Amino acid sequence: MIKFFRKIRQKLLSENRFSKYLLYAIGEIILVVIGILIALQINNWNENRKSRDQEQKYYCLLLENVEQDKEQVLQLKALNEERKNGSYEAILEIQKEKPKAKVFGKSWINALQRVTTTFRPNNATYSDIKSSGNLSIIQDKAITEALNTYYTNVAGYAETIIINSDFTVDRIKSLDSWFEAGVHHVNIFSRYNNDVFTDAIREKIKEDLPEYISEDYKPILYDAILITGTDNGRRHQLLELIESEVDQIKQLLQDKCNNND
């Protein structure tokens, strides 16, 4: 093709037809410019297609993270139901005229299981998008704002859970004695094996542990379990709020991930 145009130029010059040569040269330049513009347009189209493909992948990866968040919050709610049941049973026992230490202790331990556990959102993909400078790839700014709101809100709720549980743990740590709270009854004779205590020691402990919670210690434990129960009730509300946030962002991302247009 280049040789063909070169021959035309040479023929026009040899025939001393300069005006036609000039027009031809201009036309050739225009063709070259058009070719460059077309090449740039194709390149831009390819880059844009790659960006849209990457955007689609991001939506689906973000959705996977949020689906894991959904699974996590459901597990935490199930665990908290066990805590709430433990609180309920312990309160019923401490309200009796002669509450049994072993019954109270078992229920209280259930009410306190993994009390410092909170919700931790999976933000791996979102953090990667921001750290790599690819946030601009997400063209739907409503999604970006929704993601910012989601991670901010759930982090706040999760932090509140920890603050509340810290208050509960501090109250428990302030107790003067665990001896007649029933905790030793459960830990030594139900939850753990014989590696720590010999049979002789365990038998003596069993004799020394009181069967009933004393009248003096009863109001102290009553107060402690009420605090624990209140914390578990508030935790349920916070987990409900987290689940609502998860469901909202999940719906948005599902629509984007499933949209292949």
From TrEMBL:
Keywords tagged on the record: Membrane, Transmembrane, Transmembrane helix
Domain of life per record = Bacteria
**Membrane-spanning parts:** 21-42
Keyword match Membrane: yes
InterPro entries referenced in this protein's UniProt entry, alphabetically: DUF6090
Q: What is this protein called?
A: DUF6090 family protein
Q: What organism is recorded for this protein?
A: Croceitalea marina
